Amino acid sequence: MRIDIMTLFPEMFEPVIATSIIGRARAAGKIDIRCHHIRDYTLDKHGRTDDTPYGGGKGMLMQADPIYNCYQSILLQLGGKKPHVIYMTPAGSLLRQKRAVELSRLENICILCGHYEGVDQRILDEIVDEEISIGDYVLTGGELPALVLADCISRLCDGVLAEDICWQEESHSEGLLEYPHYTKPFSWNGREVPEVLISGHHANIDKWRREKSLEKTRRVRPDLLETAPLEESDREYLHKLEEEGQ
Ligand code: ADE
After folding, report:
1. Tell me, what's the pLDDT at 167?
2. What angle do CA 177, 180, 186 make, to 5 degrees?
3. Strands 2-7 and 32-37: what pairing?
4. CB 62 within 8 A of CB 38
5. Average pLDDT across the chain, whole number
6. Residue 126 Cα to ligand 1 middle (Å)
7. For position 147, what pLDDT does the model report?
8. What is d(CA 161, CA 157) in angstroms, rounded to the nearest whole number?
């Protein structure tokens, strides 16, 4: 997987993508993430990349041309192979794990980060395949969202996490929130690890974890229960919680 990022602030990326799991995966050649400075592609002699909006209104908009030139240079590097182009915007569709899994199967992704009041609509019409939001709140630019997306996709790529099971078992991959985890020591600040986890009885442990997932999802994200793949035993447990008034 190669991810190309078009941004006016490339310096925001390097510290993050050079660190920890993503940094190691890049060093090992499992993923290739490259940043491109849109300002390097403006033909304006003052290095300008933005201008005021037609029709009036506050703020500045990123111009189409520098982004287009930047994109053409990426296309050239990819030997003309068109990447899937994503624009990060609070007006996009909400990023979900299911979409991240689909995106992780693509070979080339190119992410455009907006800044200021946004970008000229014509560049979106010309090159963008999909608009993604990372949540219903507004950030100062698309750089942090692009990092969130790149991280979320990268860890799903083959060989990035130690074992695929790591991401298949966690929150959101099965439509439910994850159960709680405990490590040593057994007793900490007067709080003990639930007995079932040291029982060695795997069926009981699985059952306990499933129930804790259901309880947490019901409490924090009840909306997820409408689409999560639930077994008959899950429904019975949820019904029991309902009856107990929990
Ligand atoms: N740019 C600004 N806010 C954003 C958000 N919530 N998601 C994606 N891009 C953004």
Report:
1. 64
2. 175
3. parallel
4. yes
5. 95
6. 21
7. 98
8. 8
**CA 33 to CA 160: how far, in whole Å?**
13
Query: Tokens 């078992």 map to which residue?
Result: 169
Question: Is 7's C-beta closer than 6 angstroms to any atom of ligand 1?
Answer: no
- Indicate the pLDDT class of residue 86, thresholds 50, 70 and 90: very high
With H, G, I as helix, E, B as strand and everything else as coil, classify residue 145.
helix
Residue closest via CA to ligand 1's atom 4 equals 90
Q: pTM of this prediction? A: 0.93
CB burial class (10 A; 0-12, 13-18, 19+) of residue 71? buried
With a 6 Å cutoff on the Cβ, whether 222 touches ligand 1 is no
Q: Kindly list the distances between the CA atom of residue 13 and the CA atoms of 8, 33, 45, 56, 115, in Å, as whole numbers in the listed order.
A: 11, 10, 26, 33, 15
φ/ψ (deg, to 5) at 121: -55, -30
Q: Which residue has the higher pLDDT, 171 or 59?
A: 59
As given in the structure block, the two tokens for residue 33 are 């993430």
Q: Quote the tokens at residue 195.
A: 């007995």
Query: For the segment 12-58, what is each residue's pLDDT rounded down to a tens digit?
Result: 999 999 999 999 999 999 999 999 999 999 999 999 999 999 999 99
User: Strand 187-188 relative to strand 191-192: parallel, antiparallel, unpaired?
Assistant: antiparallel
Q: Which atom of ligand 1 is nearest to the CA of 142?
A: 1
Q: Is 93 in the pocket of ligand 1 (CB under 6 A)?
A: no
User: Is the predicted pLDDT of residue 169 greater than 90, yes or no?
Assistant: no
Q: What is the pLDDT of residue 166?
A: 62
